[in-house]
Amino acid sequence: MYSRQRPLLNPLTFPQVFLLLGTLFTVIQMGAVQAFTLIPSAVLSSSSTSLSLHLNRFMSSPSSTGGNGSMTGICCMSSKNKIKGSIPPRILDPSSSLITRLKCRNSLQLTMVSSLTTTMDPKTMESNSLGNNYFVEEIGRQEEQLPVQDIKVGVLLLNLGGPEKTQDVEGFLYNLFADPDIIRLPPPLAPLQKLIALIISKRRAPKSIAAYESIGGGSPILYYSNQQASLVQKSLAERYGLDVKTYVGMRYWYPFTEEALEQIQTDGINALVVVPLYPQFSISTSGSSLRVLQEEFARNSAKWGGGAGGGSLFTHTVIPAWYDRPGYVKAMANIIQRELDSFTPEEVSEQLETNPIAKHVLFSAHGVPQSYIEAGDPYQEQIQKCVQGISKLLPSEEEGVKVHLSYQSRVGPIEWLRPYTDDVLPELGRAGVKNLVVVPISFVSEHIETLEEIDIEYRELAEESGITHWRRAQALNTDPTFINDMADMIVEALNQPSQSVTEACVANNVGLVDLEDEFKGDINSAGVGGVGYNDELQSQVRLKADERFYGRIAIMAVITAVLIEVLSGRPIFGP
User: Fold this and answer.
1) Sheet of 244-250: strands edge to edge?
2) Residue 440: pLDDT over 90
């Protein structure tokens, strides 16, 4: 039999050659340092602007201004609101740290707003009679004032969305799977995204329709989101005296985020707080919702406060994650504690016969593909910290309560975050667990994953596994502690340095939108004017564009080479 002797050094294969060339081109194009330190997150100096314009009133005393009439207070950024990254922030002078880049309609001059941090306390605000005496002070002059009716604050709550009736299910699934943040295809297959989404949605629709029928024929997520928006607006009015309008924008079903933005424009909102209703940030949830805003702001920069020569008067800030909010953590702990207290003495005694710990809590978080975490998605870390924070307010293991964490709702054959909920439940049953409280940690309102997947599928699995005393902690929904904490969070965001949509995406490793030259305009993060698009961020966009271009060359080369080698049955180069 004839055989070829293997050489001491194998020659490069065709894929290796193109991978090497792709890397080399990237290094040459971007420079060695930039090529190997592609920074997905940056500290942008312009994020140190404040959205506190509507919380402030005119200060007539000389101590409120400097000698030239400009504000002298310093607005400090708390550590939890700093954007992570390796680019150091610029040192801002005291006045620029308070600048909110709204433009006075009469003078078209940059304006400045005083930042009275003492007005953060509802009692202090009341004692200061903070009502219609809001103001905007033009730089260098105090006599220019913007009437309160011209400063309109809005709050946009972002959520997943869901079909309200079974006829909507297939369309909802199509929108879901057409999102590249949900199903990530290799670049050569990206043009097939919608076709693949159509196929998947048609195949999954019958099963999903049956699931929605089991919970009443539709998702209640819009109902609860609207209730949350209404109650937050009421809390802001009653506890802070703020006239704020709230909106709900859904990612995959009506009312879509784009519809909410149209209403925001119609209502003349010029200061917007964006709050994804996901406590923990993930590329596939908060990131996907923010990308919709990012794309809209990029396409219509003049409409949303950007572009050379002015544009509309508009600014915004984003609260990308809030899993560690004291009020949120307390609200979750209170709900769980109520379920723990519901176990009877007889159930506790029965449990102690098979397991040394009387009560168990299983936090079931929505899963994401493991590849997302490897790509820099902060979701898993935030889930773990969130569970730790809530657990500190619950009885300890020594006091008879043990906490577990698992992940649910995986789809497809790829690896998702482990351990899986449907694996953990049988394991707990084998360990003799009888008393179990299941907590949907990723959700703030009831919907299909809580009402069907947990309440029906997982409960059935638990009972089959011997877990006889099942409890499920309800979602936060309209919990008063949660609602008031949301209102507090919004007020704090209005009085803290703002973070633009793009800054939030960059800080959390969400891919940037390709901004064509016609959409760039005169952009800075203070006005949506461009969703935080300054020189440093512009450099990152170029870096990512180059990285994608040469990376795609390498990927195409690999795929081509693999196909040729598979079809021919032998390597293109080498033995």
Assistant:
1) 244-250, 153-159, 271-276, 315-318
2) yes
3-class secondary structure, 435: strand
CA pair distance 46, 6, nearest whole angstrom: 59
Residue-by-residue DSSP string for 468-487: -EEEEPPP-TT-HHHHHHHH
Strands 137-138 and 153-159: unpaired
pTM of the full predicted structure? 0.69
3-state secondary structure (DSSP) of residue 346? helix
Total residue length of the chain: 575
Closest listed residue to residue 143, CA positions, set 51, 58, 67: 58
497: nearest Cα among 118, 45, 51: 51
Of 273, 361, 348, 304, the closest CA to residue 54 belongs to 273
Give the SS3 label for residue 196: helix
Q: Tens digit of pLDDT for each residue in 145-177? A: 445 457 899 999 999 999 999 999 999 999 999
Residue 74 φ/ψ region, left for φ over 0, alpha for ψ in the -120 to 50 degree band, beta for the rest? beta
With vertex at residue 272, the alpha carbon angle to CA 266 and CA 274, rounded to the nearest 5 degrees, is 115
Tens of pLDDT, residues 67-106 = 333 322 223 333 333 323 322 222 223 232 222 434 333 3
Q: pLDDT class for 313, splitting at 50, 70, 90?
A: confident
**Which carries the bigger pLDDT value, residue 418 or residue 522?**
418
Question: Which single residue is written with the structure tokens 């293991």?
Answer: 397
For 345, the 3-state DSSP assignment is: helix
Question: By percentage, how much of the chain surpasses pLDDT 90?
Answer: 56
C-alpha span between 438 and 428 (Å, rounded): 12
pLDDT of residue 306: 58
d(CA 146, CA 559): 60
> What does each C-alpha distance from 523 to 311, 505, 533 come to in angstroms?
11, 16, 5
497 vs 566: CA distance, rounded Å: 56
- Measured CA to CA, the distance from residue 571 to residue 568 in angstroms comes to 8
Instruction: Tell me the DSSP string of 228-256.
Output: HHHHHHHHHHHHH---EEEEEEESSSSSB
* 115/246 Cα distance (integer angstroms): 23
pLDDT tens for each residue of 232-274: 999 999 999 999 999 999 999 999 999 999 999 999 999 999 9
Provide long-range contacts, Cβ within 8 A and 24+ apart, for 264-269.
264/154, 264/156, 265/303, 267/152, 267/154, 268/152, 269/152, 269/153, 269/154, 269/245, 269/314
pLDDT on residue 137: 32
The SS3 assignment for 279 reads coil
